[in-house]
Amino acid sequence: MTGLVRQWIAEAKHLVVLTGAGMSAESGVPTFRDAMTGLWSQFSPEELATEQAFRAHPQRVWDWYASRREAVALVGPNAGHIALAEFHSRHPGRLTLITQNVDGLHQRAGSAHTIALHGALGEDRWLDAPLGCCTPDSIEPGRPLRCKVCGNLRRPAVVWFGEHLPAAALEAAEVAVQRCDLMLVVGTSGVVYPAAGLVLSAHQRGARVVVINPEPTDLDRVADACVREPAAVCLPKLLQT
Ligand code: BJW
Which CATH number, 3.90.350, 3.40.50, 3.30.1600, 2.40.30, labels domain 30-74+121-158? Predict the structure, then answer.
């Protein structure tokens, strides 16, 4: 199977890679939905990854993100992240990398042009539209940080359920999907939209779709091939060209 996929990669004029949490699993970053170790094996998404949850329990949600930031700072990109970055520099213009991950590991591996659909764990922004008083100088310490004048809170700069994805990122991803002839879908359960919809679009347009995941996913039904291997094992083999 990997021989065939390697041939497809060699033939592809434009390759899109969409990654999810499984991409970083071998770096030691937990996925969301894995039953035993996933971030949501203990809490439901609604308790932590929505604006309503943050407004109701700002300290709890802030602390959860702070602990994830600290954990990600202690780990590094794995062989899969590095294989993607090296392929990109060997084949300029042939690969568009789109990630749902907020951990910054693709960027740290050298994939500077990664399209980040769900924001960045390492950044924060104002919760409510900033007033004139909300400046970098007005931020006072706390959990969460807040404006010492008006009390506006800082929140993680990630995309929660019910929020729009960054328009420029989504548009760039859609443009890349329109022109791709091969899409690799790596380490995502494929249940979150509009990211999963990008795979359906690629398939509908006639692009080949390859799912790389040790477990079955919702997107297998549109895949031309499923490679049941971990990302950090599989990608270095596939991307040798
Ligand atoms: C390995 C491995 C190894 C393990 N190697 N693999 C259409 C239909 C139905 C619902 C909707 C729809 N369109 C929109 C919605 C609503 C909603 C949605 O999708 N809901 C579904 C869950 C039902 N979407 C939204 O709300 C989005 N916004 C939106 O649509 O705005 C438009 C709008 C707004 C307002 C009104 C109307 C319209 C926003 C979605 C934001 C998602 N945010 C999160 C949290 C980010 C912040 C944070 O990190 O805390 O993003 S949720 C979470 O899921 C995170 C992830 O990026 C995302 C995807 O998860 P992922 O990456 O797939 O991880 P897992 O854990 O699910 O899977 C890991 C996989 O790895 C598994 O398959 C393993 O087997 C595998 N794996 N080890 C390779 N070594």
Answer: 3.30.1600
pTM, 2 dp: 0.96
CB of 26 shorter than 6 A to ligand 1? yes
Enter the tokens of residue 16. 């899109």
**Ligand 1: which atom is nearest the Cα of residue 26?**
80
Ligand 1 atom nearest to CA at 230: 5
Q: How does pLDDT run across 75-128, given as a tens digit for each residue?
A: 999 999 999 999 999 999 999 999 999 999 999 999 999 999 999 999 999 999
Q: What is the CATH superfamily name and number for domain 2-28+76-118+164-238?
A: TPP-binding domain (3.40.50.1220)
End-to-end CA distance of the chain: 16
Quote the ligand 1 centre to 158 CA distance (angstroms). 12
- Establish whether residue 104 lines the binding site of ligand 1, counting it when its CB lies within 6 angstroms of any ligand atom: no
Distances (CA, A) of 234 to 84, 197, 231, 240: 11, 24, 5, 11
Query: Any catalytic annotation for residue 57?
Result: no
